[in-house]
Design a protein that fits this description.
Layout lengths: L6 E9 L3 E4 H7 L4 H7 L4 E4 L6 H15 L9 E5 L10 H9 L5 E5 L5 H14 L6 E8 L9 H4 L4 E10 L6 E9 L7 E2 L11 H5 L6 E2 L1 H22 L9 E4 L4 H11 L6 E2 L2 H4 L6 H11 L8 E8 L3 E8 L3
Parallel strand pairs: 4-5, 4-6, 11-12, 11-13
Antiparallel strand pairs: 1-7, 2-3, 6-7, 8-14, 9-10, 13-14
Helix pairs in contact: 3-4, 8-9
The structure holds oxa(dethia)-CoA.
């Protein structure tokens, strides 16, 4: 096999809609308290879209934000991969909508459905196309409008989720020491029963009945998802580190999916990683599904906790169940 091209993330952009839903707002909507949410989950506020805004709009805004810090000709984009479970509609794909809205003429693209692992799966897919030498510029986007499928009377669900998006640009790495090193991933479909949206697909197409039965909302067995997430997040991070003869001590920055502060700290604990190396921004954004990892990357950069040359470990667990981890050296 010919030598694979090393791939780097060369730019990042994010977007969250301006409207805030705070714990104080939620206290007026369901039986909950700021103290319970902060203690059990670690969220203070989340951003929600206004009516008429879809996942493709957040994705486009994230790409425009990326262009501000890293201007380049979008016509050079060879491929757009979008991780989302809240596409604007069943079809066309969000990638097609994003391509059209950005006016990119000669490109290819598709969506990846992997729940909260959506960005990670899209990233690993995009990497393969640059690694093989087939493409030179790939846009990888994670975008979710969770408020579109949230039952705002279900207190165990509506407190967790927010809306948001992030985008990265993948390019060949000139510096052989930088870029993506490895990834691991696994799906376990037995988890489908614990986190799913039953309505609106081919099995239960929309009817008055499906709406009355709240089938177009997130159905979550929080306890089982929590237990699996803690176990699997540790397993995937330990697996990728061992595969590369590394330990938690070698990692400079750890970014995991942001679903519950306690899941993140439990994983860091098992890896023996001090909290200074762990990026947690769930307090400000909640769980934005495919948006969390790039938004947390932005937080890490803004806080000066992710720098060129740093060994970055990324991990996610999501609906499916899906899980994965990626190891890379930050390249800019
Ligand atoms: O990205 C993947 C997506 N999802 C996740 O990763 C979610 C993982 N799960 C979790 O984060 C947690 O399981 C939840 C935050 C969903 C729930 O927290 P918990 O500590 O596991 O609570 P629980 O389900 O064990 O419920 C304990 C109690 C229950 O009351 P009773 O039956 O003991 O009287 C719940 O009804 O807490 C109650 N409860 C609440 N109380 C106040 C559930 N939600 C709330 C709430 N405010 N918002």
């Amino acid at each position: 096999m010919s030598q694979l091209q090393r791939v780097k993330i060369s730019a990042l952009g994010t977007y969250v809609p301006p409207r805030l839903l705070t714990n104080a707002d939620l206290e007026k909507m369901v039986e909950t308290t700021n103290e319970w949410i902060m203690e059990r989950v670690g969220i203070r506020e989340r951003h929600l879209v206004d009516k008429g805004v879809g996942a493709s709009d957040l994705a486009v805004a994230a790409v425009k934000n990326l262009l501000e810090s890293h201007p380049f000709d979008l016509q050079e984009v060879d491929l757009i991969v979008v991780g989302t479970v809240t596409p604007d509609m069943m079809y066309p794909s969000t990638a097609c909508l994003v391509q059209h809205k950005l006016g990119i003429k000669n490109t290819w693209g598709f969506d990846v459905s992997a729940g909260c692992s959506g960005f990670l799966y899209a990233l690993n897919t995009g990497v393969k196309f640059v690694e093989s030498g087939q493409y030179r510029k790939v846009l990888v986007i994670g975008s979710d409008v969770n408020s579109s499928m949230t039952d705002f009377t279900d207190r165990a669900v509506c407190i967790i989720f927010g809306d948001g998006a992030g985008a990265v640009l993948l390019e060949p790495a000139e510096d052989q020491d930088g870029g993506v090193i490895d990834h691991v991933a696994q799906i376990e479909g037995m988890g489908g029963q614990y986190l799913y949206m039953p309505g609106g697909g081919s099995l239960n197409p929309a009817t008055h009945e499906t709406v009355d039965q709240k089938m177009h909302y997130i159905h979550q067995d929080g306890k089982n998802v929590f237990k699996y997430a803690v176990k699997k997040m540790s397993e995937m991070t330990e697996r990728i580190l061992a595969k590369n003869n590394l330990t938690g001590k070698d990692v400079d920055c750890f970014i995991s999916h942001q679903a519950n502060r306690r899941i993140i700290t439990a994983t860091a604990d098992r890896l023996g990683m001090p909290l200074e190396k762990v990026i947690i921004n769930i307090e400000r954004y909640g769980n934005t599904t495919a948006g969390t990892i790039p938004i947390a990357m932005q937080t890490a950069l803004e806080e000066g906790r992710l720098k060129k040359g740093d060994l970055l470990l990324i991990a996610a667990v999501g609906a499916g169940f899906t899980s994965g981890a990626t190891l890379l050296r930050w390249a800019y």
